[in-house]
Amino acid sequence: MELQRFLPYQLVVLADAVSRSIAQVYAERFDLSRDEWRVLAALAKTGTMKSRDAALYATLDKMQVSRAVAGLERAGLLTRTIDPEDRRNRILELTASGRELLRKLVPMVEAREAFLLEALAPEERAQLQSMIGRLTERAQQLERHG
Amino acid sequence: MELQRFLPYQLVVLADAVSRSIAQVYAERFDLSRDEWRVLAALAKTGTMKSRDAALYATLDKMQVSRAVAGLERAGLLTRTIDPEDRRNRILELTASGRELLRKLVPMVEAREAFLLEALAPEERAQLQSMIGRLTERAQQLERHG
DNA sequence: TATTGTTATACTCTATAACTATA
DNA sequence: TATAGTTATAGAGTATAACAATA
């Protein structure tokens, strides 16, 4: 057993370092928790989404979304309204201030992602995407079968 | 901004799934915390190491090592003695029971790693290693420069 | 009965720093 | 003064489950 060559360890060390470097932007500069940032990012494309879909899209559970949404609503970054078609659902929608925050934040995190990707040749980026997808699939299989 | 295509997000989702699948072994079956498992794994090769080196080798800080070592000592898995050459250091050493635990645990986590690696062709494994190394280096650069 | 979302609780982790001892 | 390690503390995050509203 050599910890340094153990893939799960290497992945965690990498993901932790990458996470911290992204958190420097959303946490330190914009005072968001990781889950709040993920919910905002989930909303970035369309500006609106049901809570349940935000959970699926951002790999969060319903409790994490509920708390993140409460924080984002308090900060005036989104609104939460009851879905008239199924009153159990909540429809989340970015406010002008939420969109404005994303306009500032997104380029900053994308610049960090671009800096990371400079470590890879273009064809390597596609290979990495593909490998991450396959590995994630298998890790989830392992998790499920205990 | 598309969260699903954002490399930091993909890496965290992958590392979390992989971590949980490995934790099922060391936490559920052997009642170890993540940091305890890392310290044990650091000791796996030689059986002995200074606390400070364990921290460097396992990417933990001195406080995490101190707590993990206290737990492992309580469980009888290692001993902690003062280094006669520099009495500030602690020398960690696996007990027979610690070695025995690793003899059972290591093949189980390695089997899980092998299952993950089946998702990749042999040449992809080498490419992934190389990419992880380069990305980790750059992520640490980002972290340091805020 | 099942699903969506909220709230409560206890537990664990984390970050920071103060502190001891040794050098 | 600097380093290795320990302890204290508060804050954040996590997991579980109970709960309310709706379907």
List keywords for this structure.
globular; three-stranded antiparallel sheet; 146 residues; DNA-binding; mainly alpha
Across the major sheet of chain A, the strand order is 1-3-2
Return the CATH topology of chain A. Arc Repressor Mutant, subunit A
Structural class of chain A: mainly alpha
CATH superfamily grouping of chain A? Winged helix-like DNA-binding domain superfamily/Winged helix DNA-binding domain
Please report the total strand number of chain A as a whole number. Answer: 3
Summarize model confidence as the mean pLDDT of chain A.
Answer: 97
Q: Kindly report the greatest chain-chain contact and the residue count on each side.
A: A-B, 58 and 59 residues
Strand content of chain A: 5-15%
- State the name of the first-level CATH class of chain A: Mainly Alpha
Instruction: Say what oligomer this is.
Output: homodimer
User: Under the CATH scheme, which architecture of chain A would be assigned?
Assistant: Orthogonal Bundle
Number of helices of chain A: 6
Element pattern of chain A in H and E? HHEHHEEHH
Total separate domains of chain A: 1
Extract low-pLDDT stretches of chain A.
none
Give the C-alpha Rg of chain A. 18 Å
> So what's the overall shape of chain A?
globular
Describe this structure in words.
The structure is a homodimer of 146-residue chains. Chain A has 146 residues and is mainly alpha-helical. Chain A has a single domain, classed as Winged helix-like DNA-binding domain superfamily/Winged helix DNA-binding domain (Arc Repressor Mutant, subunit A), CATH 1.10.10. Helix content of chain A is 68%, strand content 9%. Chain A is built from 6 helices and 3 strands. Chain A has helices spanning 7-29, 34-43, 51-58, 62-74, 96-117, 122-144, and strands at residues 48-50, 78-82, 90-94. Chain A has a 3-stranded antiparallel sheet. In chain A, a hairpin with a 7-residue loop joins strand 2 and strand 3 (90-94). In chain A, helix 1 (7-29) packs antiparallel against helix 5, helix 2 packs across helix 4 and helix 3 (51-58) crosses helix 4. The longest helix of chain A is centred in the first third of the chain and has 23 residues, at 7-29. The first copy, chain A, is globular. The two termini of chain A are 22 Å apart. The interface between A and B is large, with 58 and 59 residues. Chain A binds a DNA duplex (23 and 23 nucleotides) through residues 33-35, 50-52, 61-67, 69-70, 86-90.
